[in-house]
Amino acid sequence: MIDKKKISRKELLKGPDEFMTLSEKVALFVSEHSKAFKAGVTALAAALLVYLGVTSYTHYIDKKGQTAYNKAYHEVMNSLNQTPEKRDLKKAEDLFKEVIKDYGFSKVSLLASPQLAYLQFQEKKYDEAISLYNAFLKENPPAEYRDMARLAIAACHEEKGDFAKAIEILQGVTSAPSSLFREEAMLSLARLYKLANQNEKAKETLEKFVESFQNSPFFPLAKAYLAELS
Questions:
Q1: 0.85 cut: is pTM over it?
Q2: Does domain 143-230 bear CATH number 1.25.40.10?
Q3: Are 172 and 189 in contact, with CB atoms under 8 Å apart?
Q4: Where are the domains of the chain?
Q5: pLDDT per residue as tens digits for the range 219-229
């Protein structure tokens, strides 16, 4: 006959380890490793303080950088609204340089370089603009910003009269089906082909545009360009 004698709690705790509850095991483990646990909690608290400090500083820098960027951008708009003889972009240039120098860790600092490059373009300093745009590309910006920079670099080469280099850059943009600026690049490419006396290539590019982008706002313009070449 099976012995149904009741086992006391005291006897149960003296039994094998499998009878010990999970909470009792945890309590025992913590008790035996109290120093390690205290050190771990201290390290976690210190890491949390560092994280909060870095986050607060980053937020502060982003806010200050955005304010400085807005000030520089506002100055650009004011200057460009002036007549060419009254236009002075030097102050705007200095303000964007301050954004790069003083708030290099802010999110907007990445956009300060192409803005500065655009000002160089406006002043016909095309080599300086190209250098700034290339420096921007080395920062690996989002795809849409990369394509905008490439379009701007192509425009710089066009202004310098280097149609071959401009065409090469635009071909790279138009060859990417996912590019958000593929339509603009194709129209610019067709125009450059025409300037470079490559009318057949210009026509082929425009025909491809008309076939691929029938709902584009640039469709009438492409049709007009194509009519001129036919």
A1: no
A2: yes
A3: no
A4: 57-141, 143-230
A5: 999 999 889 88
